[in-house]
Amino acid sequence: MDYKYRLLALDMDGTLLQDNHEISDETVKWIKEAVRRGIYVCLSTGRPFKDAYPYAKQLELMTPMVTVNGSEVWRAPYELHRRALLDSKLVKQMHELAVETGAWFWAYTVDRLYNDTHWIDDVEGQEWLKFGYTTEDDEVRHRILMSLQDMGGLEITNSSPYNLEINPMGVNKATGIRQVCELLGIEMSQVVAVGDSLNDLAVIQQAGLGVAMGNAQQTVKDEADLVVSSNNEDGIVEVIRDHILIEG
């Protein structure tokens, strides 16, 4: 059967995963059915590979993956295709900003997670992928955002209304999915991208069909072609059943 869409790009937290961090049985069933019918399913997440892979394994996916908001693209599980690193000088500045504002922070190197309770002095000796801040204080978050914009060279998104996620400029889930398309020999117009936060916005805007979850941030809903049920109500099933597994 010839389908209009060939690739389903799925954000994980707040999209594929319910609030209990599990994939519902119904969603698992429909994803496996999509794969059986020749649809590529790609996890596209802010998580690092090691935190995303167990879910790919559960779904029996051997397809490419986009992790750390696009800073890493995997040709297949454990087979790295491309990696984009943050300038360690900027990481140093971002850490200083976190200390100065008192915001909780975390950062991924290629090897591990660092955060407020465990930092490293040798910032320049590490390969950094992503930096993040979390604070429910809107004023502090806004101040951090302004400072980050002044630094330049940074791609700034979020994965919740209370955080900021920072990747190298020009690196996001859309650039990641474009590379996946090249690996698979398909076009962005054949992609269905689903998400709930600002780190999903670029790929939702650029995909053939951009889908916001019912629990998505309003900006994401406004930019999406379609809004489905929430992550706790099998919104992904709706996407696959009603919009992908129909004859093109």
Automatic annotation (TrEMBL):
It comes from the Bacteria. One of its GO terms (molecular function) is phosphatase activity. Keywords: Hydrolase. One of its GO terms (cellular component) is cytosol. CDD domains: HAD_Pase. InterPro entries: HAD-like_sf, HAD-SF_hydro_IIB, HAD_sf. Signal peptide: none annotated. It holds the Pfam family Hydrolase_3. SUPFAM superfamilies: HAD-like. This is HAD-IIB family hydrolase. It comes from Paenibacillus campinasensis.
